[in-house]
Amino acid sequence: MFRAPRGTTDILPADQKRWRHVTEAARQVAESFGYGRIDTPLFEDSKLFVRGIGEVTDIVEKETYTFEDRGNDLLTLRPEGTASVCRAYIEHGMHNQPQPVRLYYICPIFRYERPQSGRYRQHHQFGIEAIGDASAAIDAEVIELGWRLLEKLGLHDLALRINSIGDKECRPAYVRLLQDYYDGHVNTICEDCQRRLQKNPLRLLDCKNEQCQPVIAKAPHGVDHLCEPCRTHWDELQTFLNAVGLPFEIDNRLVRGFDYYTRTVFEIVPPVEGSQSTIVGGGRYDGLIEELDGNPTPGIGFGMGIERILVNLDRQGVEAPSEGDVKVAVLHLGAEAMNEAVRLGSELRQGGVAAVVVAGERSLKSQMRYASGVGATHVIIIGEDELRSGEFQLRDLAASQQSSVRRDDLVSTLLSAH
Question: What fold, for 13-170+226-315?
Answer without folding.
Answer: BirA Bifunctional Protein; domain 2 (3.30.930)
